[in-house]
Structures are given as C-alpha cells and as structure tokens.
Amino acid sequence: MAEEAAPLLELEGVRAGYGAIEVLHGVDLALRPGSLLALLGPNGGGKSTAMRVCAGLHPLAGGELRYAGRKVNGVSAQDAARLGVCSIPEGRGIFPNLTVRENLWAATGTGARLADLEEKAYARFPVLGERRHQLAGSMSGGEQQMLALSRALGTDPAVLLLDELSMGLAPMIVTKMYETVAELVQGGLSVLVAEQFARAVLPIADTAALMLNGRVVAAGPPAEIEDRLSSDYLGG
Amino acid sequence: MSTFLTYTILGLVLGSVYSIAASGLVLTYNTSGIFNFAHGAQAMFGTFLYWHVTERWGWPVWLALIVVVGLAGPAMGAALHAVIMRGLRGTADVTKIIVTVAVLLGTVYLAQWIWNPDEAHTVGMFFGAGAKITVGGVVVRYHEIVCLAAAVAIAAGLRVLFTRSRTGVVMRGSVDDPDLLRRNGHDPERAAMLSWALGSTLAVLAGVLIVPISGGGLDANALTLLVIDAFAAAMFGRLRSIPRTFAGAMVLGLAANYVLAYLPSAGTFTGNLRVSLPMIILFTVLVVLPQDRLRGAAVRTRERYRVPAVRAAAVWAAALVAAVYLYSLLLPESGVTTFALGMTFAIIALSLTVLTGYAGELNLAPLAFGAVATVVAFHFGVEGTGLAARMNIQGVLLAVVAAALVGGLVALPALRLRGLYLALATMAFGEFLSNMVLRDTTEHHLFGTTFTLFPDGSLVVPPLKVGPLDLRDGTTFLMTATVLFALIAVGLAALRNGGYGRRLAAMKDSPAASAMLGQNLVRLKLSVFMISAAIAGLGGVLMSSATGTVAQENFSFTGSLALLMLVVVAGIGYLSGALVGGLMAGVGSAVLVSTFGDLALANEGMATIYTALGHLVLVGTALVGMGVGRNPSGFVHDIIDGYRAMRDAKPVLYGAGALGAVLYVLALTDVIGTWTFALIALCAAMLLPVVGRSYLAERRTRPVPLELAGVDEPYTDELRARLDRELGLTAALEKGGARVTA
Ligand SMILES: Nc1ncnc2c1ncn2[C@@H]1O[C@H](COP(=O)(O)OP(=O)(O)O)[C@@H](O)[C@H]1O
Ligand SMILES: [Mg+2]
C-alpha cells in the first residue's frame, strides 16, 4: 500500500465500556476508502462494542472517533446515519413486526426514496419481492439478513458497518451475502466487517485486524493475519 | 322495535367513545411497549380542565376544545413521555405497569385536591341536550352524532397513519428496537413523544365525550374506571389492530346497553352486571383470543434482588417481633390498633412478594382475594353476637382455602397469558368482584337456604379467638399479626431457597427456557398463584377484623393499586419490602392524612395549609411511585446494601445500638414523645449506612486482598500489573503484548 488515502473512518486510542467495566482499552482502527476491513477475533473481544462506537450508539470514554478525518466524538446514531454511515447490528437488523416493505420504508430515514430501495432490494434478492407484504419476523434467518443488507444497497451510504453477518446462517447463504458485500466494495463502498469466523470474510478483505481483550493486537494484509490467527487463537 | 333502535344507537355511541379511548391506548402501547393504566386518569384530568374553563371561566365550547383537547391533551402526553416514560426502556413489565399505576393514582389525588370531590361538577352535551333530530322514531342528539363521527374518523385516520405513512411505520418500529431506528436515521424518542401526545389527546377527547352521555356528573375515580372499561375493546385487537379495536368497542357499547334494555330491572343485579360487563368481557377476551408465543430470549432487565438466607430471615423475623413488641409499649391504644392494621396489610403484601418478586407474575387486585376470604369468614366463622361475637379458627382456615381456590380459578384460564395479560385478568376479576359481590345486597335463595352476600353493603367482622388467644385486645392482635407475618416470611424464604423457589426464579427469568427444560409452567404458575391468594386471603380477613366494619371501599381497585405501588417502591423482591410497603399502605398515608385533617379542624387559621399538606402526602407517594423507573429494585435494596457494607464497621453498629437503647428508655419514661422517638429512630436507621461508609473509608488504608482484586472494580492496567507482579508473572508479560491469551 504505497499511496495511502486518508481513512474514511478511524478509531484512535478508543476506550469504552459498560458501567464501571472497561471493555475497549485503546482501540486503533482505520478504514481506507473503497476497501474492506475485516475485524476478527474471538467472542467477547469487544468487536461489537467497537462497531457500536463507530455507529454512534456507544459513548467513548477516551480516544477519538473520526469520520473522514473529522473528530466526531459523541455523534448521535441518527446523525451518523445521515452522514452516510450505514450500520447493521449483530443478530437481525430488521423490525420483526413490520412487513418487508415497511422495513424498507423505515430505511428511508436517511433521505433515500422508497421506490429506489424496493427496486434495488428486489432486484438483488427476488425472494424479498415475493414476500413484500409478509411480516419480516416470520421469514427465515437468511431472508431476514438479506432484508437487513438491502438497506446498504438502496440508501447509497459512504461506509457500511457489518457485525457478524454470518451469525446463525448456513455457509451457502453466508457466501452469497459476502459476494454481495464484495460487489458493493467494488462499487466504491468502504466496509468494516466484524466476524468471528475469519474464513468467511478473509478471501474478500483488503485488510484485516485482530482484536483480543479490547485491543487491536495486529493489523495488516489478510494472509498475515490469517497466520497469526491460527497460531494465536485457534491454536494451530 | 323503537326500544331496540334506541338502545342500539345508545350502544353505538358508547362504543364510539370506548373506541376513541381504546385507540389511544393501542397507539402508546405499540410505540413504547407501555400499557398505560393512567389512560383513564388522563381522560379524567382533561375533562376536569374542560369543566373548569367552560363552567368556571365561562369560555365558549370551541375555545375550550381547542385549548383542552388541542393543547393541554398533547402537552400532558408529551410531558409524561419526557419526564417519566422514556426512562422505562429496559425495565420489567412490572415496573412499567407500576409507574403508570403511580401516574394514575397521582393524577386522581391531584384532581381531588384541585376540584373538591364534595362539590358537583357537571359537563353538558355539545350543542346542549335539547339539540336533536328524530330518525325513524328514534331521538338522536347532536352530541351523539359528534361521538359517532369522531370515532369513525379517528379509527380511519389511525389506520392510515399506521399503515400508509412513514411516521406511523417508524412509530410501530420504535417499540421493537429503538437503536435500529437510530441506525436508520430516525429519532425514536420523537416518534414515542408524538404517540404519547396523540394518545393523551384521544384520552381527553374520550373523557369530554363520555361524561355527558353517562349522566353528566364528573367524579375522579368513576371517570378513571369508566375509561379503563375501554381496555376490553383494546384487547379485542390484541393491542395491535385498530379496526378490531373499533369493532370490539362497538360490541362492548351495544352489550352494555342491551343488558339495560332487556334484563329485569328489579334488584341490584342488572345494574351491577351493567357496570361489570366490560370487565367480564375483558376477562373472556383475554382467555379466548389466541396468545402471543413465549418469548425466546431471556429479557435483560434492570431489576436485581438478593435471595434471602433462611437463617438470616429467621433472625430478622425474631428481631422484628421483639422490636414491634417494644414499640407497642410506647403506643397509646389507638396507635396499637392502627399499627395492627398496617401489619395486616404487610401480610397481604407478602402475597405480592412471592407472586411478583419471586415468580414475576402480577396481581393487580390483591385486596379482592382478601374480600373473598372476608365474605367466607363472615358467613361461616362468626360465633356469638354483638360485643361477644368472635371469629373462629375454622372460619379463617376456610376463608384462606376459599381465597386459594378462587385464586386458582381466576388464574387457571389466564395461565397461558404473559405478565401483562395476567395482570389485566386479575384486574378484571377484582373489578367484577367489587361490583357483583361486594354490592350484592339482595337476598338469594339457593338449595333451600336464604342468604345475602353482602348485607346492608357492609360487614361487621369480629376479632379472632383461638382457645385462650383473644384478639379483641389490641396488643394481642398486633403481636399475633406480627408473628404471623414473621412466620410466613420465614416460610417464603425457605420456599425461595428450595427447588421450588429456583424453578420460580427460572420461570421469571426466561419462561421459554424453563419450559424447554421440562418445567410444567402451568402447574408452577397455578401453585404460586394459589399460595399468593391464600396469603392475601389470610391478610384480608385480619385486615377486615382490624378495621371492624368493612364495605366495598375497603377492597377497592385503587386501594389494591396503592398497596402494590408502595410495595414495589419499597422493593417487591424483598420480604422486608413487603413489610415496609404494607405498613406504608396500611398506616403511613392514612395516619398522615388524618393527622393533617385533624390539625386542619383544630386550627382554623391554618386549615388550608394543613389540608394542602394532607393532599401533598398523597400526591407525594404517587410521585415516589413514578420514580420507580429510576430505581426499579426498590429503596430497601439500597438500604440493605448499605448495611451489608457495614459488617466491618462494628463500632458504628454498637454505637447505634446504644443510641437506640437510650432513646427507647427516654421514650418509655415519657421524656420524649413517641413520635419524636419514631422519627429519630427512622432517621438514624436511614443515616447509619452513610456514617458507616465514611467510617470505613477512613479505615481503608489496608489494600484489597489479592484474591478480591478486580471483583468489584474495573480491571485497570495498574491492577493487572499488580497481579502479575505478585504472582511473579512479570517475565511472561514482557515477552510480547499479543501473547496475552488469557
Ligand atoms: N450490554 C452489556 N453490558 C455489559 N457488558 C457487556 C454488554 N455487552 C457486551 N458486554 C461485554 O463486553 C465485552 C465485549 O463484548 P462484545 O463487544 O459483544 O464482543 P464481541 O462482539 O467481540 O463478541 C464482553 O466481555 C461482554 O461480556
Ligand atoms: Mg459480537
């Protein structure tokens, strides 16, 4: 990486926690424009907390959160979303008691048009089109995740934050989801993915970072991190 | 035919108002997940405001409507959301319900303070009662047409809002996952505030519309309950669907009027049935309509309780009995009687601790089970007449069994229900009982016997006599009640520590998980409900006999709610919470209010101030109840934590003990008054943990022992370094930061 562009999203020395318990002890991360950064590490390492910090949902106790070089500590999640940070939470990022179409409607809060969202979502995932009037909570896990991902398709964000896309899904579907993500990256989107299962995301990642006990202990090309992973935490 | 038409129109009109009230309820429930028990109270308050500006200030109707329905209504709702409701995210159902109940009570107390209940307040129809048209021989008033039109317009408008507008979609989304709404660029608090404002407006509108068609008289309690009748309509739509709520409201209104039209009007039966019909329908709808599935994941809530150890409970129980005895020596005869009454309330409160604190289920009508037991004991357990009359032990036992059985019967059909619905079922039962049984003063003939359930509208309940133990004596009564409280409390502690108690706790934390582990939830819920009802029955009989003469008011819905609220405020997960909450409900407010009442009578000059103080006490307790959202575990929890920390501060404890003994001797020898003693003792008990903490802080030069480091403090680098140093791990750490594989 010679001509490094300025990062779109950056964490520097970020500390955060729940009540008196600190979970992130100074995290450094940088997401370059148009790249996919995979944040890897075992359960409980603090990946989700870091993702929530990036999305403006969790207060920082120290350090800096920067969007495109600007310090935005304390930004609200609404504002983060309007600034073009599309974040999809762990679990299912959908409203189970709304229909598929109503879910897409709710996703227009950042200024997109419902018609555009529907068109792009149904084109990419035809099954959603067939179920547009079904309650989202009554769909299968994979379909729900497709719906969640549709928000990234239609709202034209600058940064996409994805937490555990693979959680509870069949490998086939995970592969398909990450194909979609890879296409988005090719289209110029910058993506930060938190994953426990490195195999799913490493093939499409540009950079990877390893998070252990609330610290990023290594960052670099995916191949390097993969070696590190298998020796350090998978135990060979 | 014309009778039928007339009653149909009246039914539709009543249904319209129910529909307006119920849709407000559905709106707030769907956006905030809070079932607003205070909905009726908001309606009541708004209607009083309307009365005030039209009757007292003489404003024209249109101006009053704009100001009260258009401005005060939304303002009230928005304020409720901003100050109270938004703080309730992440709390248990119980806490949410109690906070709205506190708002209900506070609003009623406030209204009775501002608008003297002894004066008549009447609200007239729009365009006057004389403005009417005649259609097919049936007279229809303009006001009634307004009701019908408003209800149709509102139902249609809400349906459109919910399904055809993004605002409505966002509102519905905010209950599921407010954070996800934020990620989508919306402000969930704005959506929630909007819905509270709209819901409150609908409540006020319903109040202004319903008072004229139900007689015109405005009474704070009655109007609040009248709007609560609309709960049944909301339940038709499972608290979700506006069209079904509308249909349910019409069924409700029609049924109420057909009962009046076609059932015999002799006796009290038809009138009572008419009043309790909405609650009967509510109960039926709850039981018959299909249920939500059990929630998959455990709900992570903010309430935390410690489990009592049996031995500690026994020690505290003995200490309680001793303390009460010593204190009773200081009290005059009347004081002992009041104290005994409070102790009977504490026993009823124990029924809530086991049911809500341990098992996570709710009973909104504990006093109703006390009423069942009282009626049974009165009919089967009284020997002798006049002053020589006594209750026998068989009567009490039979009463307790009856309460348990009725508790089982009420709970059985409702057992599949989730917390809120079960709570509503108990509320429906309580109201039904209050209207059908406690007002039933007519003679019945059954199996050749003639009896009256509630002769003259009140029962004289004599004190209990078992062998040589005669509760006619005040102190004996007090001590018996205290010992019973202590015994039941220790029994409950044992229950909680046993396998049964652990199963209850598991069910409370995650019904789905414990069902999956093979627990029979139905049997578990049924049994705990019956245990709870039995305790409430015992407490109820004692409460009745401590009161002497009881009537419908002694078992009222608001009474039950006030008791429940105070117990939650004190800490419903604790046996001591039951004691404190029960005493507050039975003694606290009654004593304070009557004291201020007496003071007001005694000094005419200060009368207004004292009366105001009396009202302030009531509103104040409700305010405390509203604060439960901030501290959902109750204040007893904080005090206990304070004392727990003091185990190391022995000198402070001994000093406090000595101070207590000195004060007591002073009080016993009449050097200081009983009130002074009580106040000083209470303040000292509250302040002791604070003193202890500063004492401990001074002594904390010794560092935390190694094995306790990091247990109740954040795990800092410093601490880690210290651990490594003392464990001799310095070398390992220096080898490479990334190799900390913990
Ligand atoms: N709501 C919460 N309250 C308290 N602690 C939490 C909460 N959520 C996560 N934690 C703790 O924070 C740590 C990091 O969690 P998380 O960020 O979810 O890690 P990951 O996503 O890598 O599995 C864990 O130790 C977890 O127990
Ligand atoms: Mg995670």
TrEMBL record, chain A:
MF terms in GO: ATP binding; ATP hydrolysis activity; branched-chain amino acid transmembrane transporter activity
Domain ABC transporter: from-to ranges: 9-234
Pfam families (alphabetical): ABC_tran (PF00005)
InterPro entries found in the cross-reference section: AAA+_ATPase, ABC_transporter-like_ATP-bd, ABC_transporter-like_CS, BCAA_Transport_ATP-bd_LivF, P-loop_NTPase
GO biological process, one term: L-amino acid transport
Keywords for this protein: Amino-acid transport, ATP-binding, Nucleotide-binding, Transport
SMART domains, sorted: AAA
Family: Belongs to the ABC transporter superfamily.
Record's protein name: ABC transporter ATP-binding protein
Organism in which the protein naturally occurs: Actinomadura darangshiensis
From TrEMBL, chain B:
Keyword Membrane set for record: yes
Membrane disposition: Multi-pass membrane protein
Compartmental location: Cell membrane
Gene Ontology, cellular component aspect: plasma membrane
Listed transmembrane segments: 6-27, 34-53, 59-85, 97-115, 142-162, 191-214, 220-239, 246-265, 271-289, 309-330, 336-355, 362-381, 393-412, 419-438, 477-495, 526-543, 555-575, 582-601, 607-628, 649-666, 672-692
Keyword rRNA-binding: no
Main localization category: membrane
Pfam families for the chain: BPD_transp_2
Keyword tags: Amino-acid transport, Cell membrane, Membrane, Transmembrane, Transmembrane helix, Transport
InterPro entries: ABC_transp_permease, BCAA_transport_permease, LivM-like
GO molecular function terms noted in the UniProt entry: branched-chain amino acid transmembrane transporter activity
GO annotation, biological process: amino acid transport
Similarity-based family: Belongs to the binding-protein-dependent transport system permease family. LivHM subfamily.
Name the record gives this protein: ABC transporter permease
Species annotation: Actinomadura darangshiensis
